[in-house]
Design goal:
Length: 380
């Protein structure tokens, strides 16, 4: 067969040397740079300026409101119906609602004893308290230690159950969802969630449950995190400064103005009826806590933030742990925004002001995530 000439396959205009090709590419670049690339770069600059302006406005707004809150706003105990649940000799513990405590775990060798002990030490009638340890650990040795710790507390009369799954489908959201499916949960009105490194004080439930009992429109009571290792290193100190703004300003303002603020995933108490009405836990993103909070908020439920109610916790002290945490916190809201933006826009349940506050909040998150996209923590 006769050899096919390259000239039959390659157009004559492209049969040039490598230097000529480089020259042609340079010419093409010069031709498209002005009419195409430059306008795109200009558009990018305008978008960044708009984002910076929005961030500046948001900071100014938050600063003004938090000053007003500190000077003039009443404490949550004054803004809402609040009355401590009293012990009754005649009724016994029946006037206390049944509360479910969920402690999701994953290979928590260092902190499992502390977290389980703190939950079992809550000053709440033992017959009105159900504790679930949702263990998704992959290490058999750790699973055995956690189970033995649960058995130790159960032998003391604490209503604690050790729960495992065959797989880790849905990760934390899947574990929480599976825990709510148990038959005994139908007797529980509220569920408190504590990650494995969180240690609530004994009076945690007595200071938070009355908000839910006396105010049927409240779905969530969120407590503040207090970091016991904030001075461990420079990394933990920087994290504390960043998160202090979130708790001291962002969530305080959101709660005081009845605007949207997200569930932090732990150290909070949910009304189980609100979780069910919102569609339950979903594992479609890595921020299952914000997902549930948005869906509940769109259905008209209110949230309360208690800055004076603090729960001890620990900050990531290694860059690897910090990077993993930031990946979830940064990329998760972007996926959630993509999945829920149309639902937020169409929502007609909430009031005009609160609904638009949620829209602004999510647009603000989306803007921040564009800026964070270049950060390596967003790479899988």
């Amino acid at each position: 067969m006769a050899q096919i000439s390259p000239k039959l396959l390659i157009p004559e205009s492209f049969q040039v040397s490598r230097d000529d090709i480089t020259g042609q590419l340079g010419l093409i670049w010069e031709l498209i740079k002005t009419p195409l690339i430059v306008p795109l770069l200009q558009l990018g600059v305008y978008i960044c300026l708009a984002m910076s302006l929005m961030l500046f406005m948001e900071r100014v707004y938050m600063g003004i409101v938090i000053i007003l809150v500190k000077l003039f706003w009443k404490k949550p105990e004054k803004r809402y119906k609040f009355e401590f649940i009293q012990d009754d000799v005649e009724l016994g513990s029946s006037n206390f609602p049944v509360v479910l405590i969920q402690i999701p775990m994953f290979n928590e060798k260092e902190v499992y004893k502390i977290s389980i002990g703190a939950a079992c030490g809550l000053s709440w009638p033992s017959d009105r308290l159900v504790i679930q340890v949702l263990d998704d650990s992959t290490d058999p040795a750790i699973k055995l230690m956690v189970e033995q710790e649960c058995q130790r507390w159960a032998s003391k009369g604490i209503n604690i159950t050790y729960q495992i799954r065959e797989n880790r489908t849905g990760y934390k959201a899947g574990a929480l969802k599976e825990g709510l499916k148990r038959s005994y949960v139908k007797h529980c009105e509220y569920v408190a969630i504590f990650d494995a490194d969180f240690r609530p004080e004994p009076d945690f439930l007595r200071r938070s449950i009355p908000f839910l009992v006396n105010n049927p429109d409240i779905a969530l009571v969120q407590a503040r995190w207090r970091f016991v290792n904030a001075d461990e290193c420079l990394l933990t100190r920087m994290q504390e400064m960043s998160l202090d703004y979130h708790f001291t300003v962002e969530q305080e303002v959101g709660s005081a103005t009845h605007a949207f603020f997200g569930f932090n995933g732990t150290a909070g108490i949910w009304r189980i009826a609100a979780i069910n009405e919102a569609g339950g836990w979903k594992d479609r993103t890595t921020v299952e806590d914000m997902d549930l909070a948005v869906r509940a908020s769109l259905r008209g439920w209110k949230f309360v933030y208690l800055g004076d109610l603090q729960v001890k916790s620990e900050l990531p002290s290694t860059f690897k742990a910090f990077r993993f945490q930031q990946h979830r916190w940064s990329c998760g809201p972007a996926n959630l925004f993509r999945k829920m933006v149309w639902e937020i826009i169409q929502n007609k349940v909430r009031t005009f002001a609160v609904n638009h506050a949620a829209k602004f909040h999510f647009f603000y998150i989306f803007i921040m995530l564009i800026d964070l996209f270049r950060n390596t923590c967003c790479r899988k």
